[in-house]
Write a structure and sequence with these properties.
Shape: globular
CATH superfamily of the largest domain: CoaB-like
Number of helices: 14
Radius of gyration: 24 Å
Number of domains: 2
Bound molecules: cytidine-5'-triphosphate
Largest sheet: 8 strands, mixed
CATH topology of the largest domain: Rossmann fold
Strand content: 15-25%
Strand order of the largest sheet: 12-11-8-13-16-17-19-20
Number of strands: 21
Length: 397
């Protein structure tokens, strides 16, 4: 599976570093070569000798090592690998990555590389939940860094919660996924997902019941086929998938701007439940209750993101897929919507309350293309996503 692949493994300073020795062994069993890099803190947990012995390779430790630089400069080292893996990725390493620091060998390699980077965070639960780490994680995901874990459980420090490094097996699978050459590798795809929030005032907003589950599953399925996915998400209730570039937005107008910023793309899938209207007279300060008075909200129409992208001339993705969530006359409405919005395909579904589809785990869709309508049986949202991703791969082949 990993034969002929070279992995640059940066080992940060955390108690989980001992698992990284096992990771080296497991990667080599699968045919990969591993170049270990130890941070200063990493050396407190793992000796250079054990990393080197398991990898059967030289260990890199110092940015200014004259012998290393003479043999292979750090820029070259960062590019010689097929994938850069950081395990464990400590809070400090994540902060350095998010801030673009390059003060030691590990951070310099991460700045200089032109390859994909996968991190396996590991830290105390408080550190993981600290707003600074939350911000750094969002920045790194937005930069397209792949993230595996962390897991919940008892930690070495005695506390319980998320922060434990993913199991070695999980990291190996994530590495295999990142290195697999799927039918969509080299293809750029944009996926919109989740609801939008349209503010009324700083504390109130208009929203809808979309959980983001279907869009998230589609982005995950496309990434699994090797696509380079930009995932533009409103405030969804499910976490974004791993291995995609995540752009978080709130309003429809922000979503349009994010989609335009992510172009060009080979395909775009618009699974978001975008609010059709925004409050035109939203206020900057909280609306107060006045005796006998009710607020008079005025509405303005939001841009239609799907229609805007479908109508683009040069630079239009070659495949534009929309969704049509309907409650009656599903197929007729969806066909009309496809024509009106100018997209290539529409995935139609019945979201009537009795179906349990909105916010549920399953979906029953009809794929409408220029050739006609195709009913898919009711199945899990993950399976709908995989089937759609496979069709997109066929269409772009
Ligand atoms: N969509 C969009 N931008 C909007 C509204 C909708 O990109 N401002 C996209 C959705 O992501 C979806 C498709 O358009 O792919 C259809 O969304 P839907 O809400 O069903 O369509 P509406 O335009 O709201 O049509 P109607 O209200 O008439 O059902």
């Amino acid at each position: 599976m990993l034969a002929g692949k070279r992995i640059l493994l940066i080992i940060g300073g955390g108690i989980a570093a001992f698992k990284s020795l096992d990771l080296i062994r497991r990667l080599r069993e699968r045919g990969a070569s591993v170049t270990p890099v130890l941070t200063r803190a990493g050396e407190e947990f793992v000796t250079p000798l054990s990393a080197s012995a398991l990898a059967a390779e030289k260990v890199y430790r110092d940015l200014f090592d004259l012998t290393d630089e003479a043999e292979m400069g750090h820029v070259e080292l960062s590019r010689a690998a097929d994938l850069v893996v950081v395990a464990p990725a400590t809070a400090d390493l994540m902060a350095k990555m998010a801030g673009g620091h390059a003060g030691d060998l590990a951070s310099t390699l991460l700045m200089a590389t032109d390859k994909r980077v996968l991190i396996a965070p590991a830290m105390n639960v408080r550190m993981w939940e600290h707003p600074a780490t939350r911000r750094n994680l969002a920045t790194l995901q937005g930069d397209g860094i792949l993230v595996v874990g962390p897991e919940e459980g008892a930690m070495a420090c005695g506390e319980v919660g998320p922060g434990r490094m993913a199991e070695v097996q999980q990291i190996v699978e994530a590495i295999e996924g990142a290195l697999s050459d799927g039918p969509l590798s080299g293809r750029r795809v944009i996926v919109t997902s989740g609801p939008t929030h349209e503010p009324i005032d700083p504390v109130r907003y208009i929203a809808n019941r979309s959980s983001g589950a279907q869009g998230t599953a589609i982005a995950r399925a496309l990434a699994a086929l090797g696509a380079d996915v930009t995932f533009v998400t409103g405030p969804a209730s499910v976490p974004p998938p791993q291995g995609v570039r995540v752009v978080r937005v709130e309003t429809a107008r922000q979503m349009l701007a994010a989609v335009e910023g992510a172009l060009p793309a080979d395909a775009a899938v618009f699974a978001a439940a975008v609010a059709d209207w925004r409050v035109a007279n939203a206020t900057d300060s909280k609306m107060k209750k006045t005796k006998g008075g009710l607020p008079a909200l005025e509405f303005a129409e939001n841009p239609d993101i799907l229609a805007t992208v479908s109508a683009m001339g040069a630079g239009r993705p070659s495949l534009v897929v929309g969704f049509a969530a309907e409650t009656d006359d599903v197929i007729a409405h969806a066909k009309a919507k496809r024509e009106r919005k100018g997209c290539d395909w529409i995935v139609a579904n019945d979201v009537s309350p009795g179906t349990g589809i909105m916010g549920g785990a399953e979906n029953a869709v009809t794929l409408i293309t220029a050739q006609g309508a195709e009913d898919w049986p009711r199945m899990g949202k993950d399976q709908v996503a995989q089937r759609l991703a496979a069709r997109i791969a066929e269409a772009l082949a």
